[in-house]
Specification:
The protein is of the alpha+beta class. It is built from 24 helices and 24 strands. The strands form six sheets. Strands 1, 2, 8, 9, 10, 13, 19 and 20 form an eight-stranded mixed beta sheet that branches. It is globular and about 110 Å long. This is Electron transfer flavoprotein-ubiquinone oxidoreductase, mitochondrial. It comes from Cyprinus carpio carpio. Its cofactor is [4Fe-4S] cluster; FAD. It is an enzyme of class 1 (oxidoreductase).
């Protein structure tokens, strides 16, 4: 009855059992249930076959001896243990097998099974058990038929089989009882695997009463609570337009244009690649069309970083950058590093050679620097297209990348076409460079399409929040960098802060706070930790009397060397922060991003201009880029610091990582003969809310600390309101059924822009998720940290998002 009810109301029963399904007791009980079931099934099958042999072939030499019987029983128990405990041992293949496969009810879970678990479930339920059931039924049918046929003809074997017949009848009653229990489960399992929904009927009154008694009033699935509720997700990537009658007759043909190289993303990596390509084309007197598409309304408007720039790559790309007026106005003159307690600051000496030594670097407003790079690119003949978001990867028939398509415009919030609907444009190229930045949505597709992450660890991330302040000139020290770790984070939460004094014609400081997204407490709010950090005496003394003028946030790649994916594939390459080349202990990635773009450009240019080249695919495959990357200083730099970030995963956390860095990096310079591993996906690290302590944050005072919405207002963020939310959900019911029920809705805390909030249903009997997509600052944190991995960030209409001015 419960199984049938769950099949009818898919997810209704499931959401109340979710906490149980994810628990260790469920998995242990499920494995024990599987053990007892499979041993009993195999044992009954064996005993049935034994009686079959003794009765149908009543000869002594066919009867199993004691040794053989003991051996078979031992084998049955060993096989039972293997079947039952294999899913617990091989978590990578089966995940939460006993919570989602139907051994423990419900028969259907919103958590998808892995392919291995599905095959295993089918083999056990519909293979082994069904075959055993058929063997038992056929054996007993054959037995009784033979007894009836031979019993009337001769009494020769009557005494011999009399005892066996009595035992057989007893076992037959046991088998029939067991079979009657298994038949409905077989049927329900088949229906569940086929995802068949039982037609709606009136529920049993008692079942209604039980449901009403156990439903938590604050938890209600948006999808199943009311058919009148509008969809949260209306984007065509979730609800295809070819199945939507509102799109019938709409012209869907796109205009296509050709280029030699198309670059997605007008950041440091993409612009460096474009500049280098045109430099080489001019140097060799070759015609080369290079196009850069950028989703921001202006080049640099979506760029956010600290930023302390190491000028190595810039000097290689544009040696005369000073003469050209590059906006590097603040050389570092002073370095400070500290451990913070709640009230005190403990200075830590920065020894020569440590990552935090910034001698020779520059404090910059990276958005202004990127805008300047765009000007240099345009002077060389690069075509820049700001305000055009690349929304789709195009492929040739042979599977190689053909180019990209920009997003459609003129789609209403409900997913229907407006009168002003226009299709995006296709840009085809011989090779396409993807430099979207951290956690690019096209790169995610490419990782799966070409299995680019097959031989590396999952990427791990952090969220960085930043503000610009104009402070009292007496407190201003141009060129000073201050970094700190410790309070307000505990020792097991990776993170830290920066405060840079910029020389930009006014007493300006850039300050920021970084929190590793592998944190475990769902009550943690990176934004509120940032606001609390500013009240530390050593920070507040700088900010008092000042004026906050800008705010923004962005995710950062922190996986480093261990998480570098395959960089090349037929028709394209990954560059910059899209694959992730950030030097975590240095908190710098601009120089490595620029260098990767230059290496990709040099490799692509030699292939594109090779007149004798015979490519096996329509889109050029350029493995030389990856080879050049591994020979470059980026590879050496990232390898040398590969163990610093994962060294924080120890009992002592922050302090153990600092000791490791001081001993092994400073002395051995990363030459230790081992490589530490990360903890896995950041989305998997959150603990259930019931296992964590809520964090009480102080109210903002409006002078040093501020509320979220007034902060987002300073980012200049804006989106066309009447468009489908670009924060899409794979399943609208999951946020309430899982995230709110288990983790107390962590998206309403980890989002630094107030995009997600849980609000009461209009009926007053539960909650629903509300997505304020117009607030989104494009940080991608939700896509990364969502514990159910149900959120998929896609690009909105071009020009939407933040409008940073030199962040």
């Amino acid at each position: 009855m419960i199984g049938a009810y769950d099949l009818k109301f898919r997810g209704e029963y499931n959401r109340h059992a979710q906490a149980w399904m994810d628990s260790v007791p469920c998995q242990v009980i499920g494995s024990l249930a599987m053990l007892s079931t499979e041993v009993s099934v195999l044992l009954l099958t064996y005993l049935t076959l034994e009686k079959y042999i003794c009765i149908v072939y009543p000869f002594r030499y066919l009867t199993p001896g004691r040794r053989r019987t003991v051996t078979i029983l031992v084998v049955i128990w060993i096989l039972g243990f293997v079947i039952a405990f294999l899913p617990l041992v091989c978590k990578g293949v089966f995940r939460n097998f006993y919570g989602t496969n139907g051994v423990c009810f419900p028969l259907h879970s919103e958590q998808p099974e892995t392919l291995g678990a599905q095959i295993y479930s089918i083999v056990i339920f519909l293979g082994l058990n069904l075959v055993a059931f058929l063997i038992i039924v056929l054996s007993y049918g054959s037995m009784f038929y033979n007894i009836q046929r031979t019993g009337t003809q001769t009494t020769k074997y009557t005494n011999h089989i009399k005892k066996e017949l009595t035992i057989a009848k007893r076992f037959f009653s046991i088998v029939i009882t067991d079979s009657l229990c298994w038949i409905p489960i077989f049927i329900l399992k088949i229906l569940s695997l086929m995802e068949v929904e039982i037609p709606a009927r009136r529920c049993v009154g008692a079942l209604k009463a039980v449901q009403a008694e156990h439903v938590a009033p604050q938890v209600c699935s948006t999808r199943s609570s009311s058919s009148t509720l509008s969809r949260i997700t209306t984007h065509y990537s979730v609800y295809p337009r070819d199945k939507d009658p509102r799109w019938e007759g709409v012209e869907m043909e796109r205009f296509a244009d050709e280029a030699d190289v198309v670059i997605v993303g007008g950041g440091p990596a993409g612009l460096s690649a474009a500049i280098r390509l045109k430099q080489l084309a001019n140097q060799h007197e070759k015609e080369l069309r290079v196009c850069v598409v950028e989703k921001a309304s202006q080049i640099g408007a979506h760029t956010l970083s600290g930023a302390c720039l190491e000028p190595t790559a810039l000097s290689e790309l544009i040696p005369d950058w000073k003469e050209r007026g590059a906006p590097l106005n603040t050389p570092v003159t002073e370095d400070k590093f500290s451990i913070l307690t709640e009230k005190y600051r403990i200075p830590v000496p920065i020894l020569p050679g440590l990552p935090m030594n910034n001698h020779g670097n520059y404090l910059v407003r990276l958005g202004h620097f990127v805008r300047w790079l765009g000007e240099q690119a345009e002077e060389l003949g690069v075509e820049l297209y700001p305000g055009y978001a690349a929304s789709e990867v195009l492929f040739h028939e042979d599977g190689s990348v053909k180019g990209i398509a920009t997003n459609d415009v003129g789609i209403a919030k409900d997913g229907s076409p407006k009168d002003v609907f226009e299709r995006g444009m296709e840009l085809h190229a011989k090779v396409t460079l993807f430099g979207e930045g951290c956690h690019g949505h096209l790169a995610k597709q490419l990782y799966k399409q070409f299995n680019l992450r097959g031989n590396c660890e999952p990427q791990t991330y952090a969220i960085g929040l930043k503000e610009l302040w104009v402070i009292d000139e007496k407190k201003w020290c141009p060129g000073r960098t201050e970094h700190s770790v410790g309070w307000p984070l505990n020792r097991n939460t990776y993170g830290g802060s920066f405060l840079y004094h910029l020389n930009e014609g006014e007493p300006l400081v850039a300050l920021g706070f970084v929190v590793g997204l592998d944190y475990t407490n769902p009550y943690l709010s990176p934004f509120r930790e940032f606001q609390r950090w500013k009240h530390h005496p050593s920070i507040m003394s700088t900010l008092e009397g000042g004026n906050r003028i800008a705010y923004g946030a962005r995710a950062l790649n922190e996986g480093g060397f261990q998480s570098i994916p395959k960089l090349t594939f037929p028709g394209g390459m990954l560059i910059g922060c899209s694959p992730g080349f950030m030097n975590v202990p240095k908190i710098k990635g601009t120089h490595t991003a620029m260098k990767s773009g230059m290496l990709a450009a040099e490799s692509a240019f030699s292939k594109i201009t090779d007149e004798n080249l015979q490519s096996e695919t329509a889109g050029l495959y350029i493995p030389e880029y990856e080879e050049a990357f591994k020979k470059s200083w980026i590879w050496k730099e990232l390898y040398s610091v590969r163990n610093i970030r994962p060294s924080f995963h120890n009992y002592f956390g922050l302090y153990g990582g600092m000791v490791y860095t001081g001993i092994f990096y400073w002395i051995l310079r990363g030459k230790e003969p081992w490589t530490l591993k990360h903890n896995g996906l950041d989305a998997d690290q959150l603990k259930p809310a019931k296992d964590c302590t809520p964090i009480e944050y102080p109210k903002p005072d409006g002078k040093i600390s501020f509320d979220l919405l007034s902060s987002v207002a300073l980012s200049g963020t804006n989106h066309e309101h009447d468009q489908p939310p670009h924060l899409t959900l794979k399943d609208d019911s999951v946020p309430v059924a899982q995230n709110l029920a288990i983790y107390d809705g962590p998206e309403q805390r980890f989002c630094p822009a107030g995009v997600y909030e849980y609000v009461p249903l209009e009926t007053g009997d539960g909650m629903r998720l509300q997505i304020n997509a117009q607030n989104c600052v494009h940080c991608k944190t939700c896509d990364i940290k969502d514990p159910s991995q149900n959120i998929n960030w896609v690009v909105p209409e071009g020009s939407g998002g933040p409008a940073y001015n030199g962040m």
